[in-house]
Design goal:
By secondary structure, this protein is of the alpha/beta class. It has 24 helices and 14 strands. It is elongated, with a radius of gyration of 29 Å.
């Protein structure tokens, strides 16, 4: 890398947060070990750093809350996993500036006796910022766009063509040195003039972050009336669309926060005002052709929602110790949605001109097993279907427990109740069954099947029997067994065998798990068994001498745009097979509802259609 492009702690990864340790220890010593100090600088540095992190999270959540930004969003489908990874260490500037603040207090005269509040100092810092900091930043920014500096340093920031709040902090170490030095000009002016204050540290840093994040939030929310009532404001304060144009055409709009310097320097984009006005007028909401109706599995999985955890949502969900302390915040954030009882958009993407969104029912997995909660959940699902129908959505696909047989018969309840639906209701289980079936090697002649009387279990059993594979069907209900047996062709019925205990699978090395199976029940499988599964949540992998399949998923085609969120435990670019089934329904333009029992005759048809569209099993 170029000189000073790499951050000093870049190679230690997340261990960089230990750089806060000396500051924390000093604050503890001053306030616990050595008594309270009214001007405890380290404590204030920690507080303002925490507030900066909170503000950063708030801006990220805002920029990804579809209900708030959909009307005035600047660019769509631009961010992806590559950008999220590149911007992972976007908080480096907070760490660096915290260290600089502590060093300044130790070594720079005037920092050791700051007052708590000094209005004159805050006003003078504002004037110095407007005059010196803005002016110097404008020319430094223009210099960074010269060929050498751009290729070696500034191109890293501009690699994010669709900015997000995290883009604001994504820069090289040299760029941070320049920006911190320019920020120090405004603060030092007040300190050396004897007007410095602790309040100045809070106000200046938080206001600076606010404007930087605002410029990168990808939503034009600054009201038009502010500029019409006070025209000079267009020279004093930029807008998100103003800075977004700089990421589109990087030869214009170089200012920090004040467009005045672009006017004086002749670098203002000629489309700035018309672009801003068009965005403020708002665009008509783009109606998705596909909606995938999901739900959170448990409380921790709420962190995996795109607008809650930007980084966590970009990797497969795994519970970890550091997630538990923030669970109270999840209740605070999602409680209004839970009470309001409306679905919300978690993320959206575009594939071959087809606009898809994932809506989330504000309920956790355990709600679906509470008898008194089923009616309310069905109401939420029904309302989502009706909302999608009213908006003109083509297909709504039900995820996991939203199509539970005991809840609504795989969506059949809604289709029977609303016979004039234009939106196609799809449970997607036909493709899920296909993924599981095509995962089984052709050499397998016998399988042990649990959850055999469910929609998926029934289809898998019938399909395998048709293909002369012996199915040991675990069920205690003779009636259910005979009902499925009657659907099997007469010459294939000897292949479907009812068993009532897990011991019956002790000689079978292919188990298909359709309901939760504990360690004791798994212990009956012979060594070398492979556990295929279609149960939510997945079974625990307790056998070290066996192998476990993952939940049925499909890799989406490579030409997908805007995908920046992993779906539950699936990897990047992989969605649940039922999600892919709904997507396939929309891509193929099929006009039938896929609800209730799986049509076994369509399993091969759906599988071939998925492969045709570039989907591959995960």
């Amino acid at each position: 890398m170029a000189f000073l492009a790499e951050w000093p702690w870049q190679r230690i990864g997340n261990l960089k947060y230990f750089l806060f340790a000396p500051i924390i220890l000093k604050a503890l010593h001053a306030n616990v070990g050595g008594g309270y100090e009214s001007d405890n600088w380290c404590l204030h540095v920690l507080i303002v750093s925490s507030l900066r992190y909170i503000q950063h999270q708030c801006w990220n959540s805002y920029s990804r809350l579809h209900c708030l930004v959909k009307k005035h969003q600047i660019q769509k489908f631009g961010t992806d996993f590559v950008q999220v990874d590149r911007e992972f260490h976007c908080d480096n500037f907070i760490i660096f500036q915290a260290l600089v603040a502590v060093a300044a207090h130790m070594w720079v005269p005037g920092f050791s006796n700051l007052s708590v509040w000094n209005f004159g100092g805050i006003l003078s810092a504002l004037l110095v910022h407007m005059g010196a900091t803005e002016f110097l930043y404008y020319w430094a920014h223009r210099a960074l766009h010269e060929k050498f500096f751009y290729s070696q340093y500034h191109s890293y920031h501009h690699a994010s063509s669709t900015p997000e709040p995290s883009t604001a902090g994504t820069r090289t170490f040299l760029e941070e040195l320049l920006q911190t030095a320019l920020m120090a000009v405004a603060i030092m002016g007040s300190v050396f003039g004897g007007r410095g204050s602790i309040a100045l540290l809070y106000i200046y840093l938080l206001a600076f972050d606010f404007l930087k994040h605002m410029g990168h939030c990808n939503c034009e929310f600054v009201p038009l009336w502010a500029y019409t009532m006070f025209p000079p404001l267009k020279y004093l304060l930029f807008t998100p669309s103003y800075h977004s144009l700089h990421h589109i055409d990087n030869r214009t709009n170089f200012c920090l926060f004040m467009p005045l310097y672009d006017y004086l320097g002749g670098t203002r984009n000629k489309d700035t005002w018309s672009f801003y006005v068009s965005l403020r007028k708002g665009s008509k909401e783009q109606v998705p052709q596909l909606v995938f109706l999901a739900h959170c599995i448990d409380i921790l999985s709420s962190l995996h929602v795109s607008f809650v955890g930007r980084t966590l949502s970009s990797i497969p969900f795994r519970s970890a110790w550091y997630q538990w302390p923030v669970t109270p915040l999840l209740f605070i954030a999602l409680f209004p949605l839970w009470i309001w009882g409306r679905t919300f958009v978690a993320y959206e993407y575009m594939l071959r001109g087809l606009h898809a969104q994932t809506w989330v029912v504000p309920r956790y997995g355990f709600h679906y097993f509470l008898p008194f909660g089923k009616h309310k959940i069905n109401q939420l699902i029904e309302q989502a279907i009706l909302d999608a129908d009213a908006k003109g959505v083509k297909v709504i696909s039900l995820a996991a427990l939203n199509k539970n047989e005991a809840l609504n018969g795989g969506g059949l309840l809604f289709v029977k109740k609303h016979k004039d639906l234009k939106v196609r209701v799809v449970h997607g289980n036909t493709l899920t069954a296909a993924v599981i079936l095509y995962e089984i090697p052709p050499s397998v002649s016998e399988v042990f099947l649990t959850g055999a009387t469910s929609k998926l279990g029934r289809a898998i059993a019938i399909y395998l029997c048709r293909n002369r594979v012996r199915v040991l069907m675990l069920t205690s209900s003779r009636e259910r067994y005979e009902h499925i047996l009657n659907e099997v062709p007469e010459d294939c019925r000897p292949y479907l065998v009812q068993v009532t205990k897990y011991q019956a699978g002790k000689n079978c090395k292919t188990w298909i798990i359709g309901k939760w199976t504990n360690a004791k029940e798994q212990s009956w499988a012979p060594v070398g068994t492979h556990f295929h599964q279609f149960v939510i949540p997945p079974v625990q992998e307790v056998r070290k001498d066996c192998t476990y399949g993952k939940l049925a998923g499909m890799h989406l085609p490579k030409d997908i745009k805007g995908l920046r969120t992993c779906e539950y435990t699936f990897g990047r670019g992989v969605v649940a097979a039922c999600h892919a089934g709904g997507l396939l329904h929309a891509l193929e333009g099929w006009d039938h509802h896929e609800v209730g029992s799986i049509d076994v005759d369509r399993i091969d048809t759906v599988w071939e259609a998925a492969l045709k569209h570039g989907m591959t099993p995960a």
